[in-house]
Design brief:
Elements (H helix, E strand, L loop, with lengths): L3 E4 L5 H10 L6 H10 E7 L7 E7 L4 E9 L8 H11 L6 E5 L5 H6 L3 E11 L14 E4 L5 H12 L4 H10 L2 E6 L5 E9 L3 E8 L3 H12 L5 E7 L6 H6 L3 E4 L2 E5 L11 E3 L7
Parallel strand pairs: 4-5, 10-11
Antiparallel strand pairs: 1-2, 2-3, 3-4, 5-13, 6-11, 6-12, 6-13, 7-8, 8-9, 9-10, 10-14
Length: 283
C-alpha cells in the first residue's frame, strides 16, 4: 500500500479527530489547534486522502520537546507507520533536545527500540463526579482567576515545575482553558496555579503547580467544585501523597503508563511542584 507522509495543517483537523475516534481517543478541534500552535503534527494519508496515522511533537522554549498523538488506524497497522511518524518527530529537533513521551502499552516496545527509556510513570485518575472534600483553612493567601499581568510570573513558576519554559504552549493552553486560577501568598507572590480543559468526555484538570499537597488539594477543589460531569487528572508518580485526596474526591486510578525519554538519561530538572500534567501529550 502507498502512503504519503505529510505535515498536517488546520484543514486536516477534522480528519485527525476521526483518526483519534477510530482508536477510542477523544481529541477535539481545540486540543489539536493547541498542539499545532505549540508544535507540529505529521502523518500519513492513503490514496483516497484519508488520514491513517499521526504523531505530534510539541516544542518548548529551550531544550525539551514532547511527542504525543501517535496513532495508526487499525486497518493500516503492520506497515511501520508508527515508527515512521515517530522518527519524523525525532528528526525535526536537534540531538541536544530531550524528547519525552507517555507510552501506551502497545507502543512501549517500539519506543524502546527507538532509543527511549522509562524514567517514571503517570497515574491517570478518572471520576464520574467530583466530591468536594474538606481542606485546611485558607491561611496561605488568595486564589483568583488569572489576570494578564500575572502571565510572566506563571510562566516562571511553571518552568521550575516542568523543567523548561513553555510560554508559547501556556499562552495557547490558557486561551483554550475553561478556567485558570492562581494562588498567591500574603506577600502577593504566586505560589501555585491550575487549569481546566473542557473535553468531549472529561473535564481535564492540569497543569496543577503547587508547593505542597494541601495547596494542590485547594486548587483541585476550586477548579472542580460544582462540576457535574466526568473528570480526569494525570499525576506524576512522584506525588503519591495526592492519591488519598483524589480517591476521597471520587477519583479512581485507571492506568499507570510509563514516561519515556530520549537524548537524556533522566527527566529535566524539576522542583517537585508539578502535581498534574497539562495532558499526557504535553509531558
Amino acid at each position: 500500500m502507498n502512503f504519503e507522509l505529510t505535515l498536517f495543517t488546520s484543514t486536516d483537523i477534522q480528519g485527525l479527530i476521526e483518526l483519534s475516534a477510530s482508536v477510542g481517543w477523544d481529541y477535539d478541534a481545540h486540543e489539536i489547534e493547541t498542539i499545532m500552535a505549540a508544535g507540529r503534527i505529521v502523518g500519513h494519508k492513503n490514496m483516497e486522502g484519508k488520514i491513517v496515522s499521526s504523531a505530534a511533537i510539541i516544542l518548548y522554549d529551550t531544550n525539551v520537546a514532547s511527542i504525543g498523538m501517535v496513532i495508526v488506524h487499525e486497518q493500516c497497522r503492520g506497515f511501520g507507520l508508527g515508527r515512521i511518524v515517530t522518527q519524523a518527530c525525532i528528526d525535526s529537533v536537534s540531538d541536544d533536545t530531550a524528547i519525552m513521551l507517555v507510552a501506551t502499552k502497545e507502543g512501549e516496545p517500539l519506543y524502546q527500540k527507538m532509543g527511549f527509556t522509562t524514567v517514571e510513570h503517570v497515574h491517570k485518575y478518572l471520576a464520574n463526579k467530583f466530591v468536594e472534600t474538606t481542606r485546611e483553612a485558607n491561611c496561605f493567601g488568595t486564589i483568583n482567576e488569572l489576570q494578564e499581568q500575572d502571565f510572566e510570573q506563571l510562566v516562571k513558576l511553571d518552568a521550575a515545575a516542568f523543567g523548561d519554559s513553555r510560554s508559547v504552549f501556556l499562552r495557547k493552553r490558557i486561551q483554550q482553558s475553561q478556567r485558570c486560577v492562581v494562588v498567591k501568598n500574603q506577600h502577593n507572590q504566586m505560589i501555585g496555579y491550575g487549569l481546566t480543559i473542557a473535553g468531549p468526555i472529561y473535564l481535564l484538570l492540569g497543569p496543577i503547580v503547587a508547593p505542597d499537597k494541601e495547596i494542590a488539594h485547594y486548587i483541585i477543589n476550586e477548579l472542580a467544585k460544582g462540576y457535574q460531569g466526568k473528570l480526569r487528572i494525570d499525576c506524576p508518580s512522584v506525588h503519591k501523597e495526592l492519591s488519598p485526596i483524589l480517591q476521597q474526591s471520587g477519583f479512581t486510578l485507571a492506568a499507570t503508563p510509563p514516561v519515556m525519554i530520549r537524548n537524556a538519561k533522566r527527566m529535566p530538572t524539576r522542583n517537585q511542584t508539578l502535581f498534574a500534567l497539562a495532558a499526557q501529550a504535553f509531558g
